[in-house]
Design a protein that fits this description.
- The structure is a single chain.
- By secondary structure, this protein is an alpha+beta fold.
- The protein has seven helices and 17 strands.
- Strands 1, 3, 4, 6, 11, 12, 13 and 17 form an eight-stranded antiparallel beta sheet that branches.
- It has two domains: about 1-30, no CATH class; about 35-305, Jelly Rolls.
- It has helices spanning about 5-25, 50-55, 80-85, 215-220, 245-250, 255-260, 305; strands at about 35, 40-45, 55, 65-70, 85-95, 105-115, 130-135, 145, 150-155, 160-165, 170-180, 195, 200, 230-240, 265, 275, 290-300.
Length: about 325
């Protein structure tokens, strides 16, 4: 073959495209790996004013030059959260996941969270979510990493999974990895959800039942929204619920008695009751201000992609 100029221009794109295609064939997850910086997120639904509750900082990081600081104080809430005894400051990752009929589409998310030394059942202000996934149109999260102030817990509401995973390493960064398969196929002994804490797999937090069930899909579709294709979003940050219970439980008997006459309660989807508009009442004390730092958020299709690496997420 005579390699003239015309032949060169014909074949040179193949010289570039072929190696790229080979990499994607041999390592398909490479195309999906992503470091999640702030620009890859947006303010989570119902989050309190981010100007007061979310900050990018450079003086306190797990790695690199930037970390994310969440601050939530008494009364900082938005919309229906204020009514339903909750408050939050969350970031929603701009990646949409979906449930498939079959298993096999495995996703990994990781994050590092700095847990302050003073963290306990009081400073947490009751139970709070640290990391969760929601499907559009479904009230309860698909999975949620939460705490009462002492350690990491996981719940999978669709199949009533609830597990204690590990105590906090207080005053340190805690590295969390979540592996999840949103497939609706029921397979015996299949690991639909797994969790690693500081590099160690936690078998007690492995879930062998579906994260997404037919009932979850039915609830999502029940609203009839034209924009709803059962999108799944992942969120991290602080989400407190049942704030009213915390305020009531820690108030004096006199204040509890006085507020009992005027407060209203509602029943949550999980069957528990909560106090409506708790921030509008005087309890003689406030929910403690909580500050948590997040860093090194990653998304991928394998454990190796999301484990903490030398290259920081900035």
């Amino acid at each position: 073959m005579n390699w003239n100029l015309k032949t060169f221009y014909y074949f040179w794109p193949l010289a570039i495209v072929a190696p790229i295609l080979l990499v994607l064939i041999l390592f398909p997850s490479a195309a999906s790996a992503k470091d999640i910086t702030v620009k890859h997120t947006q303010t989570g639904p119902l989050s309190a004013n981010p100007k007061d509750t979310f900050f990018v900082v450079g003086d306190f990081t797990k790695a690199g030059d930037k970390a994310q600081m969440f601050v939530l104080a008494h009364g900082q809430c938005k919309g229906q959260d204020c009514k339903w005894s909750a408050q939050r400051s969350e970031r929603e990752i701009k990646i949409t996941d979906r449930s498939k009929s079959k298993i096999g589409n495995i996703l990994f998310y990781s994050v590092s969270i700095f847990i302050p030394k003073e963290m306990d059942g009081n400073t947490s202000g009751g139970k709070l979510s640290l990391f969760q996934a929601k499907m559009k149109g479904v009230d309860m999260p698909l999975w949620q990493i939460f705490t009462s102030g002492m350690g990491f817990n996981v719940k999978i509401p669709a199949t009533k999974g609830k597990m204690f995973c590990a105590l906090f390493n207080k005053g340190e960064w805690n590295d969390i990895v979540v592996k999840v398969d949103y497939g609706r196929e029921k397979v015996k002994d299949y690991k639909y959800f797994e969790m690693w804490i500081n590099g160690e797999n936690k078998p007690g937090c492995t879930h062998h039942s579906q994260v997404v069930t037919k009932q979850v899909i039915k609830e999502s579709k029940s609203h009839g929204w034209s924009s709803n294709t059962q999108q799944i979003s992942t969120r991290y940050g602080i989400y407190r619920w049942n704030v009213g219970d915390y305020l009531y439980r820690n108030a004096s008997s006199e204040i509890r008695k006085a507020n009992k006459k005027k407060m209203k309660e509602y029943k949550q989807p999980n069957g528990l009751t909560s106090i409506m508009y708790p921030f509008k009442m005087d309890w003689g004390h406030e929910v403690p201000t909580l500050t948590l730092y997040y860093d090194e958020v990653r998304y991928g299709k394998s454990l190796g992609e999301v484990m903490i690496r030398d290259k920081a997420v900035d």
